[in-house]
Design brief:
Layout: E1 13-18, E2 23-30, E3 46-49, E4 52-58, E5 63-70, E6 77-84, E7 94-98, E8 104-108, E9 117-119, E10 142-149, E11 155-163, E12 166-175, E13 180-190, E14 196-203, E15 209-216, E16 224-232, E17 257-260, E18 273-276, E19 282-288, E20 297-304, E21 307-312, E22 336-340, E23 346-351, E24 361-367, E25 372-377, H1 392-398, E26 402-405, E27 422-428
Length: about 425
Amino acid sequence: MRLVSFVLSCALTFSVTLVKAQKLIPADKGWSNNSVNAVVFRKNSITTKADTQFIAYYAPDKKMVLGKRHIKQDQFITQKTQYAGNTNDAHNSISIAIDGDGYLHVSWDHHGHPLRYAKSIKPYSLELGPKMEMTGLNEGKVTYPQFFNMPNGNLIFMYRDGQSGQGNLAINQYDVKTKQWKQLHSSLIDGERKRNAYWQACIGSDGVIHVSWVWRESPDVASNHDMCYAKSDDGGITWKKSNGELYDLPITAQSAEIACQIPQKSELINQTSMTVDKQGNPVIASYWKEKGSEIPQYHIIYRNHGDWEVNSLDFRKTPFSLSGVGTKQIPISRPHIVAGGKKKPVYYLMFRDEERGEKVSLAKVSSLQKGKMKIMDLTDFSVGSWEPSYDTELWKEKSKLQMFVQKVVQVDGEGMAEVEPQMVYVLEVK
C-alpha cells in the first residue's frame, strides 16, 4: 500500500544578518578546476574521532591528501598518499570515516569504476595500506561511495551499483570486532533496470538508519521525481516505512513510500541531505520549483505527528532550469541540513547562492510550523561552485558545526576550468 503524503507549503518569514565572527582553519591548496573536492555527497570530507579531526582532498597534482589536527589546534598535519584520482570528473570524490577502533577508512575516484578502498595501517594514522576489496560482491561499477558511523563503532558503506538511470543501492557493514566487511544488501533500492535512486542518508543517535531518495528515469537530471523514504532499526538488515510497515525487499518504485510527490521537470535536484531531530523524526532538505513558479526554492520535508509536511523557504528570486547529463553548473548549491536546539528543534540549512554572492550561507529555521527563519552569510568571499559538507561526528558528539570549504569552479557537463589551486579550509561556525 502506497502512503500518500500530506503536504503543507508555508512561506517562511526571514531576516538577513552578516556573521563575521567565523574561523577558517587552513589545510593546504587543493585541486579547484572543478568541484570534485566540494560536492555535497562526500561522506565524509572531514570527520572527528575523540579529539582528532581528519580531512581529505585532492592536491593540484591529483594525488589524494589526508590530514589531521587536534580539534583545539589550528594546524593540520597533511600527508600526500600513494593514490590519485581522475579529478577531471567531479563525481570522483573522496569519502572517509573513522571506525570505533580509530582506523581511517577511505574510498575515492569512482564513476562506474571498480571499488577503490583502503584502510590506515594503524589507528589515527594517515598512512594507508594497499587497495583492497570489501566483500568482492557487486564492486565492479561503483559510484557515490559513502561511509556512515554507527553508535557501536561499526561502519555502514553505501554506493550505487550500476549507472545513472539504471542502478541499485548497495549496502555493506564493517564489524569492528572481526575487522571484516559483509554485504547487507546488493540491491536495497532496485531500479529494475529502468531507473535509479539518488539517495541521501543519516544515522540517528539511536542507531536508526534513515534513507530518502528521488527516482531518476534516465541520465537526464530533468527526469528526477518524488521524494521517498525508508528506515532500519536493526543495523540495515530489515527496512520499514515511516509508519512501521515492513518493506518487502528490494524496494522498488511501486513499493516505495512517497514522502513528497514531485513531478518530473520540476528542477528537482538529486543527492541532497537529511538529518533527524532530537525526537528521531527524519528531516530532508532539497530544492525544486512549485507548480506555477519558475524559481527553484529550498524545501524542508519533515515528519510531524505522523504526517509528512513540507516547508518552502521561498527566499530566492532568480529562475533557472536543470536538464542534461553530467555535473551541472548551477547557481545554487545542493543543501545540507542539521537539527539542533535544546528544548525545541532548530534547523540549520547550509547552502551557496549566486544571489548572495556565492558565499557560504546558513539559514537558521527556528520553527517549521510558525515560519521563522534567519539567513546568515558565514564568509565575506565567494566560494564559486562549492557545495556544503560538514563534520557529522563532531556535530553528533559536541553540537559543533564545522564545514569543509574551498573555492572551486564547475564548468557545465564535466567541463574543466583553468584556475589557480585554492586553499582548503575548515570553517568553524560560531
